[in-house]
């Protein structure tokens, strides 16, 4: 049961069809807000100085922690298939580890990005995590990671609060345990 009805369609001239997700259709009750949200989402991907794999790992970690099936499902598909970036960036086994918070098998930079994103999400960025993230990332990369974490924390909370239904063809968090 979704709490916010979805508009049937966002005009293609407002938002390209590939970006018309159920969250977008819920937000389109306020068209200007929807467009602003989608512009920020586009910016954290296409204007970012972070590589796609790193962005997707951070998004998956936040989505799993928030138990946002919608955001997890979208980004599980993006990260584990070549549909968006032209290559697989995260294996299913890695996605499972991210979901479960088992980060020790990841490279130090990747682990730091996910830990910083979660510290940001939990409002617990302290001097120790700041020193670690600053050792692995340039100032602009830290900014990009911070905005990414903020946006996807908000997206996860929006999909949960509005009870946005899963988009067609995406899998819930629990599906990562299913055979690939």
From TrEMBL:
Pfam families given in the database record: CMD
Annotated Carboxymuconolactone decarboxylase-like domain residues: 36-82
Gene3D superfamilies linked to this entry: AhpD-like
Molecular function via GO: peroxiredoxin activity
Entries under InterPro entries matching the protein: AhpD-like, CMD-like
Protein's UniProt name: Carboxymuconolactone decarboxylase-like domain-containing protein
